[in-house]
User: Which sequence fits this backbone?
């Protein structure tokens, strides 16, 4: 879908590598993530450009086939709480979007099948607010 390399902090890059090693993804997603990580740009967290999906971001995505809009508050795995309406960056949609920027279209295998999403908006998310 989007050919631009993903941009990740070194910590998130290492977390995704570890996630791959644990074999928690479908074969399709595993292959896709391995390919993305090979060409990923690793930067310091403070150097991640605005509009890039990372930890502590609020992401608005559109499911291309249905047009439905979803808003996800991505946080570190230990901070994800359903009652706070937050999800882990290691959730299926979190892993799919990490490192992509606004306007990117991503294809990822979800529990209900292959989906295509467009990242409509990325903004900082402060859990303490």
Assistant:
């Amino acid at each position: 879908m989007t050919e631009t390399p993903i941009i990740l902090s070194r910590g998130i890059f290492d977390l995704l590598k570890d996630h791959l090693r644990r074999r928690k993804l479908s074969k399709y997603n595993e292959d896709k993530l391995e390919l993305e990580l090979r060409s990923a740009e690793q930067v310091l967290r403070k150097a991640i450009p605005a509009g890039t999906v990372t930890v502590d971001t609020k992401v608005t995505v559109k499911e291309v086939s249905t047009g439905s809009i979803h808003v996800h508050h991505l946080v570190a795995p230990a901070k994800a709480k359903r009652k706070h309406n937050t999800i882990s960056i290691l959730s299926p949609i979190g892993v799919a979007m990490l490192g992509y920027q606004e306007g990117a279209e991503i294809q990822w295998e979800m529990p209900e099948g292959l989906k295509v999403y467009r990242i409509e908006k990325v903004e900082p998310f402060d859990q303490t607010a």
Summary: The CA atoms of residues 52 and 101 lie 4 Å apart. The longest helix spans residues 27-39. The chain has one domain: 7-124.
